[in-house]
Write a structure and sequence with these properties.
heterodimer, A: 417 residues, alpha/beta, FAD/NAD(P)-binding domain, five-stranded parallel beta sheet, 26 strands, globular, B: alpha+beta, Alpha-Beta Plaits, two-stranded antiparallel sheet, 23% helix, binds flavin-adenine dinucleotide, binds iron/sulfur cluster
Chain lengths: 417, 65
Amino acid sequence: MSDHVVVVGSSVGGVRTVQELRRLGFGGDITVVGQEEEKPYDKPPLSKQVLMGTQTEDQILLLGEGGFEALGAQARLGVRATGLDIDSMTVALADGDEVEYDALVIATGVRPRNLSPALNELDSVFTVRELRDARELAARASLGPVAVVGAGFIGAEVAASFRSLGTEVTMTEAMQAPFARALGAQVGGLLSELHQDHGVQLLTDATVQTIERSGDVTLVRLADGRRVEAATVVVGIGATPNTEWLGDSGLKIADGVWVDAGCAVLAQGFGPHAEGVYAIGDVARQVDPVTNKDYRVEHWTNAVEHAHAVARQIVDPTSAPQPLKAPYFWSDQFDLKVQMVGRPAEADAVTMHRFNVSGTEKTVAIYEANGVVAAAVTLGWPRAIAACRHAWEARADVDALVSTLSELADRRRTAAL
Amino acid sequence: MKLGSDVGKCQGYGNCVAIDEQHFDLDDDGMVVVVQQEVSEGERETTEEAVRSCPVAAIWIEGAR
Ligand SMILES: Cc1cc2nc3c(=O)[nH]c(=O)nc-3n(C[C@H](O)[C@H](O)[C@H](O)COP(=O)(O)OP(=O)(O)OC[C@H]3O[C@@H](n4cnc5c(N)ncnc54)[C@H](O)[C@@H]3O)c2cc1C
Ligand code: SF4
């Protein structure tokens, strides 16, 4: 068993790793290195509750009273890791220190992609990844119209949150419909309607050319000549893994740190194996041992599942890794819960299904690949998502899932115990 | 051991149900329902995992919070 575990990244992946190690009885030393000075907090509420002011900063903290100390872990917050040497098994820190490890968990996540470096330098242009982003944005709700560039999940949530506060919102999307790339045209269409019904002005086929500032107004110019004037611009066009610090470490890195089913890192080419090094969460690109395909998943539940898996591997390196879990994601937009399981990108067909649940219509999109359920998206029907997750894991066919969902719709569940 | 829940906190993410259907379900409005309150020693591991999987700490095992 390792004596000293070093975790780099103090967000949900890193925090849950430390908690699980202790829960499994790991008695060695733990050091957590995190670039952000803040007490570890959860990110999903940043574009939702924190922006809308329905949750305070204290309510999204990941650790209870006592923080890392209560878990017997040494925290080095506000310090960046700058390098990894897999031979001497050391991590270099920005403050000049070096930390030796027996096991290293890389949990450095992702950061928002920029349009082009210059465009984000205006102080009225934001991305959302850290608490300070949400803090500053919340304070700008009353300053006037908001333009959201990129109708991905985070952009759409930011748009919905600002609309709920009464702010005027325009959202631009390069494709024909928001989410069209991720979820297909049908679900994209339904979500477009949702946003339009709530007063979001949606501009599709919109490629941003420049963002300029003139006085209090920030101007978003589109390639086709359209323009959006706003007080605040939020850019949500995807994310890039934080792997620069691993530069020439010898790990296999290409859009993420490549790992096996147990989250152990893979070597670059025929290079040496990096003993005791793991990567988890948003930064990890995991190879499915069954299909040999690789996936990088930017979902909360994935980070927690990885954290649990990696803690088990560290405590017992001989334990056999479990099969990859169903990727699962939720998003809250206005009063609608959008929940997704599986991998829509792998589907060759999508069908829309409607169910009557005590008088209300619920919609489920089922994505199919080679006859089996590749993914499912539920709109406003949380109860159905567990059945969809099981169907994905069991490689069920679409008809089987539809009949399970019909039964579920008929089997009412109202009163709590 | 007994289960506790705070429906006011629940966001209907369904992580708990996906892991432990014997103890958790969601109602039609997407709020967690504890369908079996007693947790036996044999069930404990799975139920604890379900509790830990909740993103908003809306469920817990009494005395273990
Ligand atoms: C606004 C927003 C809304 C979201 N909403 C949802 C949602 O509704 N549902 C859902 O399933 N998921 C959602 N997500 C995704 C979810 O939050 C992530 O999947 C999760 O945070 C991943 O955790 P992680 O620990 O892998 O990485 P991260 O949370 O990205 O944490 C990485 C940490 O590492 C630190 N770090 C980076 N480089 C270094 C370095 N060199 N040295 C030291 N520290 C470093 C970073 O500062 C950061 O604190 C959302 C994300 C955001 C940003
Ligand atoms: S995991 Fe938590 S938030 Fe999700 S349904 Fe269960 S209790 Fe509710």
